[in-house]
Design goal:
The complex is a heterodimer of chains A (292) and B (256). Chain A is an alpha/beta fold and 292 residues long. Helices cover 37% and strands 25% of the residues of chain A. Chain A has a six-stranded mixed β-sheet, with helices on both faces. In chain A, strands 2-1-4-5 form a four-stranded antiparallel β-sheet, covered by helices on one side. In chain A, helix 2 crosses helix 3, helix 3 runs antiparallel to helix 4 and helix 4 packs parallel to helix 5. By secondary structure, chain B is mainly α. Chain B contains eleven helices and no strands. In chain B, helix 6 runs antiparallel to helix 11 and helix 7 packs parallel to helix 11. Chain B is elongated, with a radius of gyration of 21 Å. Chain B starts with a helix and ends with a helix. Classes of the chains: A alpha/beta (292), B mainly alpha (256). The interface between A and B is medium-sized, with 29 and 27 residues.
Chain lengths: 292, 256
């Protein structure tokens, strides 16, 4: 079942077309990596999904219900974590969560237990100090806790790891991975290693539309070829190999390079200590797409 | 209703923890005491300065003070109290826009109308507490030291000034839904006040200016009639309601 469906979404800001008939869908209980360079329109898309901005054209469905600008009905299924979450600094984490519980309409009798469970999950339990004194990582973790409070069907995270140090990033990604069974995650980022770590499906946003999408496995199959790496003990072997290789290379294309390398080694009696096909990664695909 | 109470609680908590509650209460309380205190101390001040006045050729005769002297202080100090209140609360919405704290509230299902409505009720309630506290203290001291009955329409004059205070808060709310920062909100509110002063300069239009409501002293000593002030009173209430309705319209349309 599709938890989120975006159809032909367009949005313009001061004459600049940010989104151009953008379409994509996110399946239930999956983590969708929404990637694109800064300014590609990721945050705009998320704000449109949340009904915080008005679309120029197109439709958005959450749990098969259309999203309307200014309407908060579909938001009952959404948990939102902004890129830099800001809270009321004069409150403690528990007080803020209690405010969220009241605002979101949670039943009073379950609230306390639920809040304590979530704060424990993100490692903020027993923390009575005011949010004003929190580090960025702590705020991000509190952001996750508040987003999960109403047990959302769709958890929208806008670049949750961009501003964090490696330890903070790992913590946030671990938490996101751990809640995958309970919810569906739309994860926007430009940190590709994070996508490779936790996402099931990826959509690459460029020039206001999804240029490439699919599972990580699908994408890897279609990734640009990157050649191979070869290593010799002796420098003269290396020079000999490349002389022969350069002479014959033009006759061959892409993936046959490895076969050529092997045949040259056999013919010229060269023994490499390592011969390895280079694996193209998401970064190569990303760079190739944004070059267009 | 839980969401409304939740947001009310947050507003109250912010008022206390930001220290605004103490500052405003202290200012309004202080003025409440100062009004009769200055009136009471005036003869002593003149007496102590009489020697230096004599050297300059000024003879100080016996100064008599009464409740009117204290009420005069009350209406003189009122604009300062209003200014302090407006300065402290000019950022009631703009601070939230700048910190983007309302986005999470709205995405959790809190209606924009509830947010604005709660803030308006809190502002009006808190202003009422502060205003009537000053009035109450001044009134009580006046009754204790002198006799309030020499002044005409004491309560009604204060109600008129109170309406003017609510008008200024409505302006503050409206401009808070339009502008991004507190300085612009204050400048725009100040601009409207200056416009009201200019209107007051014209005899025919002047009687409709909301600032006429601050002429409590003229009502107390019967320089002007109450019926004349009612016009400005009703008009100010009407304009304030329109401003508040407009602020809901603007807030609904603005991006957070």
């Amino acid at each position: 079942m599709k938890m989120l469906e975006v159809l032909n979404l367009s949005k313009q800001f001061q004459g600049k077309q940010v989104l151009q008939e953008l379409s994509f869908a996110v399946e239930e209980h999956s983590i969708y990596g929404f990637i694109g360079k800064n300014g590609a329109g990721k945050t705009t898309t998320m704000k449109l999904i949340l009904g915080l901005l008005k679309a120029d054209a197109g439709e958005i469905y959450i749990h098969e219900m259309p999203v309307k600008y200014g309407s908060t009905k579909t938001n009952q299924w959404i948990g939102y974590l902004p890129d830099v979450p800001e809270f009321y600094g004069f409150m403690s984490a528990y007080e803020y969560m209690d405010l969220c519980a009241k605002v979101t309409g949670l039943q009073e009798r379950n609230t306390r237990k639920k809040i304590l469970e979530l704060l424990a999950q993100v490692g903020l339990q027993e923390d009575k100090k005011k949010i004003a004194g929190y580090s960025r990582g702590m705020k991000q973790r509190l952001g996750i806790a508040q987003a999960l409070l109403n047990e959302p069907k769709l958890f929208i995270c806008d670049e949750p790891t961009s501003a964090l140090d490696p330890e903070g990033r790992k913590e946030v990604l671990d938490i996101m991975e751990s809640v995958k069974e309970k919810t569906t995650i739309l994860f926007s980022t430009h940190i590709l290693s994070d996508v490779e770590r936790i996402c099931d499906k990826v959509g690459l946003l460029n020039h206001g539309k999804i240029e490439v999408s699919g599972t990580l496995l699908d994408l890897q199959k279609n990734m640009p070829q990157k050649g191979f790496e070869i290593e010799f003990v002796k420098e003269e072997d290396r020079q000999c190999f490349f002389k022969l290789f350069d002479e014959e290379k033009k006759q061959f294309l892409g993936k046959e390079e490895m076969e050529l390398a092997l045949s040259i080694c056999v013919k010229a009696h060269l023994t490499p200590i390592r011969l390895e096909k280079s694996r193209a990664d998401l970064e190569d695909l990303f760079l190739e797409v944004i070059k267009k | 209703m839980r969401n409304v109470f939740g947001f009310f609680k947050k507003e109250g908590m912010e008022l206390v923890r930001s220290g605004k509650v103490y500052i405003t209460l202290l200012v309004f309380l202080l003025f409440g005491v100062l009004n009769p205190a200055i009136a009471k101390l005036t003869p002593f001040l003149y007496q102590s300065l009489s020697a230096s006045f004599k050297e300059q050729g000024i003879t100080v005769t016996n100064i008599s003070v009464n409740a009117m002297t204290s009420w005069q202080q009350y209406y003189k100090n009122l604009p300062i109290e209003l200014l302090v209140f407006l300065l402290l609360f000019a950022g009631i919405l703009t601070n939230e826009y700048q910190k983007k704290t309302l986005i999470l509230m709205v995405t959790k299902g809190l209606k924009k109308s509830v947010i604005l409505g709660t803030k308006i009720v809190c502002l009006f309630f808190y202003f009422s507490v502060c205003y009537w506290l000053t009035y109450g203290i001044t009134f009580a001291y006046n009754a204790y030291f002198w006799d309030n009955s020499i002044a005409h329409h004491v309560l009604l004059s204060a109600v008129f000034a109170y309406i003017c205070g609510l008008f200024l808060i409505s302006l503050l709310v409206l401009f808070s839904t339009i502008f991004e920062n507190a300085l612009n909100v204050l400048l725009a509110t100040g601009g409207v006040v200056i416009l009201c002063y200019v209107i007051q300069l014209f005899p025919k239009a002047g009687k409709w200016s909301p600032l006429v409501l601050l002429s409590g002293m003229d009502i107390l000593n019967q320089k002007i009639t109450v019926s004349g002030v009612w016009n400005a009173g009703f008009l100010t209430i009407g304009i304030s309601i329109i401003f508040l309705i407009l602020s809901f319209w603007c807030f609904q349309r603005r991006e957070l």
